[in-house]
Protein 1
Amino acid sequence: MNNQTADLLIKDANLVATVDKDRREITSGWLAITNGVIVAIGGINDSMPHGNKVLSAQDCLVTPGLINTHHHLYQNLTRAYTPMTSKPLFGWLQTLYPLWTDNLDEEAVYTAAWIGLAELALSGCTTSSDHHYLHPPRAGDLLSAEIKAAQELGMRFHPTYGSMSLSQKDGGLPPDNAVMQEEDILSASESHVKRWHDDSHNAMIKIALAPCSPFSVTPHLMKETAELARKLDVRLHTHLAENDEDTEYALRTFGMRPVELLEDVGWMNDRTWGAHVVKPDDTEIVRLGQAGVGVAHCPSSNMILASGLAPTVKLHHAGCPVGLGCDGSSSADAASMWQEARLAMLQGKLVSGADAMNARLSLEISTRGGAGCLGRVGEIGELSVGAAGDVAVWKMDGVGHAGVLNDPIEGWLRCGPTSAWHTVVNGNIIVQNGELVSPRIQDMLTQHKSIARRFQPLESVQN
Ligand SMILES: [Zn+2]
């Protein structure tokens, strides 16, 4: 490799935190990417190849691109929506379901995904999941609309075909016109997997199946979806043990707690990753860990909705792949993976003790742990030869970092560049010098504002 020329060379880093299997940290590091894959990585004593393109990482920390394991991109059309700003989960959802159901269409979902993924890229994210569970009649093909946005931006994308089948008339939470027939859900799930899911190494698009929650789908649909996921060999995702309302609903309706329900419907295995997982008890944490169920930890959302403090460190040590999620964007309401990583560190200390959580563990959760949730350890979420060329470069100079001398990784989350200096996905530069490379950002923001006005009743819009 060293006599050849790479497509992209990132060099002169203060530190490269690889988060590889040996957790190597390389001072004065560099890495080379060709055909979307890391082909060489090293330090000052290693022979460095030339690059057709070169990105300077001077005064920078280099990490794997961050992985967002739970999101609802369309919700950025109702961010900080005044009438629901102080409601817990069920009231929050019931305020917003009608606005979303009445207004979602392909253009809205495409535009929201484009802006949401751009926001994520600016925060160092290179792979994002999305849980899209609303498919109103005549809204069009919404999953394909958001995939188009990800492809145009160049983001690695794991959309899930989400679903709701249990409406108010049947004892569920969503309005009657927000749900689908279960046979339609299963056939749409299969057709989207067949159209979009890519099994290959370094794939840019993978699909998972994602019935929304115990209060919006039936156990029958959960079981049928698990069977379909096994047949198609794709992953399973759902909201799990999000708050006390969720637990009370499951006990009242099914006579069991959410984690017991997960087991009852055949989801207690390493094909599954759940969002939030705020309320498992100690016995359930052990069961989830033994089964290898992944956890998308969403600290901002859990605080805004007052859901609680998730036992993230316990879940990690129990054996669950724990990743990070922004969840929202109208419960979070920001889509910043750096911010979630910092909050995960702070909450982890608060819940488990100051020495039980640190910036390195939060970085691990934000990268390698996310890869575990998505079934891609060794492929994304680490910097190693053969892994995807997904990289975040964080500028560590300026007033915010004055005094950070001996531990740039702790400095990264304690002080904070807050946004990425460069973000590279599959070897392509998406963010450079802190700016989105795409020239379309202003036009897309204008379009987003126009669509968001349609979602939000005029009297609530302040400007
Ligand atoms: Zn969610």
Note: DSSP finds 14 helices and 17 strands in the chain.
Protein 2
Amino acid sequence: MIHAVVTGHSRGLGHALAAGLLARGARVLGLARHTQPGLLATYPEQHRQVAMDMADTAALAAWLAGPELQQWLAGADTVVLINNAGVVQPMGAPGRQGSQAIAQAVAVNVAAPLMLSDALVQASRGCADRRIAHISSGAGRNPYPGWSVYCATKAALDMHARAAVLDAVAGLRVASVAPGVIDTAMQADIRATPEADFPLRARFDALQREGQLATPADVAERLLDHLLSPAFGADPVVDLRTL
Ligand SMILES: NC(=O)c1ccc[n+]([C@@H]2O[C@H](COP(=O)([O-])OP(=O)(O)OC[C@H]3O[C@@H](n4cnc5c(N)ncnc54)[C@H](OP(=O)(O)O)[C@@H]3O)[C@@H](O)[C@H]2O)c1
């Protein structure tokens, strides 16, 4: 059986990924600040949720030092971690970003995924099939004005995957996956940002107007097909749109 950990399961792509894994029979532990009552009601046996602010790296470290993760992964044929939780804020040029918001973005987008990856590998030592997917972005591979913090954090995930593959840990596959543009709260946040802070906003307004945003459910299905396929991890940096 697949035993999975999905961060940011409370809405958007993470909710669709958790729902997709549960529908495929996996056990899914979700980590986010908010709960997702619908998933708990539908899958009371397979699903657990832990309230966690991943900007609080001390709280996350304390949870990882406890027994819950190892207990959750015990007995799995396949262990999966999807580092999905992420924030696009702060948007704006250097000088307009703010120390607090930068620290929060780096904690959620980089520190938490790297901490979870390390802890998961340690806690699943007996398992021969372990898969870690970082949810990256095209913004980690191409620079965008107003997104220097977001671009830097997503590039960090890509590089983590590329370097971790070189360690050739037994039974471990890692890849950083750009999912494409998805109709979630994050896109609404982008469209609500003044052009002074995100000069490319009109492009994102047009994507929505022209119906070019993918649904979270469609993206999740394609991402899970790849994640659970034999091909996963062969390329540590992939774009779902060109797979
Ligand atoms: N939407 C797109 O077009 C797009 C494109 C490329 C990449 N991505 C990436 O895809 C991933 C999912 O994005 P989305 O569009 O689904 O975003 P979203 O709708 O804003 O959802 C973000 C998720 O991350 C969680 N999260 C945020 N801050 C957190 C914190 N401090 N602690 C714990 N969890 C936190 C949220 O849970 P809580 O609020 O409950 O904590 C929520 O479940 C992100 O990594 C994003 O960068 C999205």
Note: Residues 2-179+216-232 form a domain with the Rossmann fold fold (CATH 3.40.50.720).
